[in-house]
Each structure stands twice: as C-alpha cells, then as structure tokens.
Hints:
Number of domains: 1
Largest sheet: 2 strands, antiparallel
Strand order of the largest sheet: 1-4
Order of helices and strands: EEEE
Helix content: under 10%
Amino acid sequence: MDLENPMNNDFRVVSELTYKRQNEEFRPDITILVN
Length: 35
C-alpha cells in the first residue's frame, strides 16, 4: 500500500463478501479492499 501517493493504489468496495474461518462464516455489509 502506497501511503505517500494514495492514487497509486487500487481500491475496491464489495458488498456482503463472505468470509469463512474453520466452521464459522460471516458476511460484513461492506468490505473495502486496497491493492
């Protein structure tokens, strides 16, 4: 992640992306991905 030049980063916003961990699953309303 480029903190000095934020425009060099790619940003994505995803709604309801499902995450799985062992036997658990959760889905945040909004997930922001950088690079």
